[in-house]
C-alpha cells in the first residue's frame, strides 16, 4: 500500500467529492499518486418512455464527454503535487472498479458509500459493499 497508487472512484456526487478529499490526504501521507476513476454505465430508458432523438452511440459519446469535462474540473481544483491519473471505463461500476484496481495494482481503494438503508438498500445494488467484499486490496468507504 505504501508505494502503490490509491484508486478513487467517483460518480461526481457530493459524497464522492468527500471521499476524494480522503484519497488526496492518504496519497499525500504515503507520497503516492492516485487514480480518479469514473465508470460510465449503459444508459437505460426513463419512466417517461421518451423517444430519443439521438442514437445510443451518440448518447454514450455525450456521457463520456461530460464525464471527461467533470474530471478536468476536479483536477483543476486539486492542490496536489502528486501524480494524478484520470480513467474513464464503461460497464458495471463494481466490475469496472475491481478490474481497474487489479489492472493498475493499486494499494488501496477510497470510495463513497451512498448509505442506503431499508427497502432502498434491498432494491439497489450497493457498489461499495461489493467492492469491500471482493477487492484484493484495502478499501476505505467514506460516508
At a glance:
With 143 residues, this protein is of the alpha/beta class. The protein has one domain (6-40, 51-84, 94-142): 3-Layer(aba) Sandwich (Rossmann fold).
Radius of gyration: 16 Å
Order of helices and strands: EHEHEHEHHE
Report helical residue fraction. 40-55%
Count of discrete structural domains: 1
Instruction: Name the structural class.
Output: alpha/beta
**How much of the polypeptide forms β-strand, as a percent range?**
15-25%
Q: Provide the spatial order of strands within the biggest beta sheet.
A: 3-2-1-4-5
The total count of strands amounts to: 5
Full CATH superfamily name: HUPs
Terminal Cα span: 22 Å
Mean pLDDT: 84
Dominant shape? globular
Question: The CATH topology is what?
Answer: Rossmann fold
The number of helices is 5
Description:
It comes from Shewanella gelidii. Belongs to the universal stress protein A family. By secondary structure, the chain is α/β, with parallel strands linked by helices. It has a single domain, classed as Rossmann fold. 45% of the residues lie in helices and 19% in strands. The protein has five helices and five strands. A five-stranded parallel β-sheet has the order 3-2-1-4-5, sandwiched between helices. Strand 1, helix 1 and strand 2 form a beta-alpha-beta unit. The chain is globular and about 50 Å long.
Amino acid at each position: 500500500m505504501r508505494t502503490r497508487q490509491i484508486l478513487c472512484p467517483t460518480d461526481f456526487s457530493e459524497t464522492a467529492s468527500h471521499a476524494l478529499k480522503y484519497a488526496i490526504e492518504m496519497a499525500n501521507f504515503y507520497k503516492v499518486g492516485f487514480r480518479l476513476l469514473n465508470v460510465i454505465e449503459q444508459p437505460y430508458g426513463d419512466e417517461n418512455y421518451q423517444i430519443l432523438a439521438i442514437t445510443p452511440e451518440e448518447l454514450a459519446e455525450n456521457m463520456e464527454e461530460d464525464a471527461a469535462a467533470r474530471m478536468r474540473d476536479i483536477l483543476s481544483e486539486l492542490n496536489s503535487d502528486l501524480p494524478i491519473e484520470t480513467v474513464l471505463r464503461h460497464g458495471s461500476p463494481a466490475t469496472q472498479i475491481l478490474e481497474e484496481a487489479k489492472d493498475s495494482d493499486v494499494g488501496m481503494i477510497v470510495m463513497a458509500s451512498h448509505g442506503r438503508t431499508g427497502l432502498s438498500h434491498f432494491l439497489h445494488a450497493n457498489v461499495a459493499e461489493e467492492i469491500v467484499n471482493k477487492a484484493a486490496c484495502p478499501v476505505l468507504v467514506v460516508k
